Q: What sequence folds into this?
């Protein structure tokens, strides 16, 4: 009997506690109300993102120092930056379209000049295509090909000859050394070699230098191809450069080739931008 | 020439120091009110101009910046030291002030530094980096709003 009474008493106590907590929840204390009211009237704004404060033109100035991948990474920062970047990209796109139009006009003018000179028309396309193809081939060269050639102690005659001619072409004040092969290897194994090769300016070839490398036209293409693929690509490039430089109007022809390259590059980047902007 | 900052502090500057300010140096006015620039920022901008008092030709920074380069590789040591001692928020305000005054070298330096900091980071890291350190209270917001209205008037 006593036990039952004790149980009932416990239950009653629990019920009382529950109801008390409910009453407590229903009403705030004066202090609590004051605190809540203060928070409503004086909200603490979370840390602002600085990007909201920055004007689009300043973001544009910052992006001028960045490459495209970092630029596009910024799109993911917020909706605001995404909109800004899309806007900036569309501006860039318009600028590139304008550049393309200007280049096309310049190209048309140059083509008209060339068409007035029949001797140029005859050669221009074949020479420029040959030059362009040789440049494309150069881009296929891998580091392994260079390493393979560099490992030769006694290189095949054709390979040695081609690389020597390349050294003559790319070295500013060429002086022939006793060990020509080592001289060529120093050039080829340099880390700046590909950059130097792909950005070589034909207009910088003087008449004396042309005489030094003109031998390339006398070499047999098949033999070079058989000895090394790397040497073959280099051979094709030097030959194209020499043939182009031998033309009396080589400056105009080279300009034409460069202009076509620039237009291709522009149209490729325009395509990319159009895809991103949608 | 006198510069008056947003918080009404006046800075007197020699004409030689102003040589870097391409938009201001050729004007006849003797007082320039910079309603959107705080005195702390204006002080930094003047410090930069004074630093280059004897530099007639500051080399341009190459665009885009090469991946392996840091700020000490692309600008002079004193410029790099100046910019690395500033906070991000200050740099952004400095760019705005420099743009107003036409200090192109300071704009380039600040933008290049931010670009280097942003480069190679993912969006989350960039977000973290650009977070303001100071929480904005409603009083500050009200002050900013008042200032904007004042500027518009």
A:
């Amino acid at each position: 009997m006593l036990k039952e009474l004790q149980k009932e008493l416990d239950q009653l106590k629990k019920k009382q506690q529950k109801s008390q907590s409910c009453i407590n929840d229903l009403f705030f204390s004066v202090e609590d109300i004051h605190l809540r009211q203060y928070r409503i009237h004086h909200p603490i704004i979370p840390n602002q993102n600085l990007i909201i404060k920055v004007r689009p033109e300043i973001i544009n100035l910052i992006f001028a120092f960045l490459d495209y991948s970092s630029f596009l990474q910024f799109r993911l920062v917020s909706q605001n930056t995404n909109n800004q970047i899309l806007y900036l990209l569309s501006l860039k796109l318009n600028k590139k379209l304008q550049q393309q139009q200007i280049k096309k006009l310049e190209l048309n003018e140059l083509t008209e000049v060339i068409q007035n000179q029949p001797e140029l028309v005859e050669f221009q396309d074949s020479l420029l295509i040959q030059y362009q193809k040789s440049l494309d081939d150069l881009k296929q060269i891998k580091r392994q090909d260079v390493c393979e050639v560099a490992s030769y102690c006694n290189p095949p005659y054709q390979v040695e000859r081609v690389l020597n001619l390349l050294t003559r072409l790319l070295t500013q004040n060429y002086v022939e050394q006793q060990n020509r092969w080592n001289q060529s290897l120093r050039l080829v194994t340099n880390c700046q070699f590909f950059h130097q090769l792909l950005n070589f300016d034909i207009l910088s070839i003087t008449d004396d230098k042309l005489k030094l490398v003109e031998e390339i036209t006398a070499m047999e293409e098949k033999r070079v191809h058989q000895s090394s693929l790397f040497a073959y690509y280099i051979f094709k490039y030097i030959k194209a450069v020499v043939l182009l430089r031998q033309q009396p109007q080589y400056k105009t022809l080279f300009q034409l080739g460069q202009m076509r390259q620039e237009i291709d590059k522009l149209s490729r980047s325009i395509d990319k931008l159009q895809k991103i902007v949608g | 020439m006198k510069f008056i900052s947003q918080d009404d502090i006046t800075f007197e500057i020699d004409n030689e120091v102003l040589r870097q300010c391409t938009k201001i140096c050729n004007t006849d006015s003797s007082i320039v009110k910079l309603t959107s620039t705080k005195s702390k920022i204006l002080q930094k901008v003047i410090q930069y101009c004074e630093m280059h008092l004897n530099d007639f030709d500051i080399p341009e920074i190459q665009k885009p910046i090469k991946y392996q380069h840091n700020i000490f590789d692309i600008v002079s040591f004193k410029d790099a030291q100046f910019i690395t001692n500033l906070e991000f928020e200050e740099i952004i305000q400095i760019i705005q002030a420099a743009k107003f005054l036409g200090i192109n070298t300071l704009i380039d330096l600040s933008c290049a530094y931010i670009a280097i900091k942003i480069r190679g980071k993912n969006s989350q890291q960039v977000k973290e980096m650009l977070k303001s350190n100071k929480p904005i209270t409603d009083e500050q917001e009200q002050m900013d709003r008042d200032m904007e209205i004042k500027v518009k008037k």
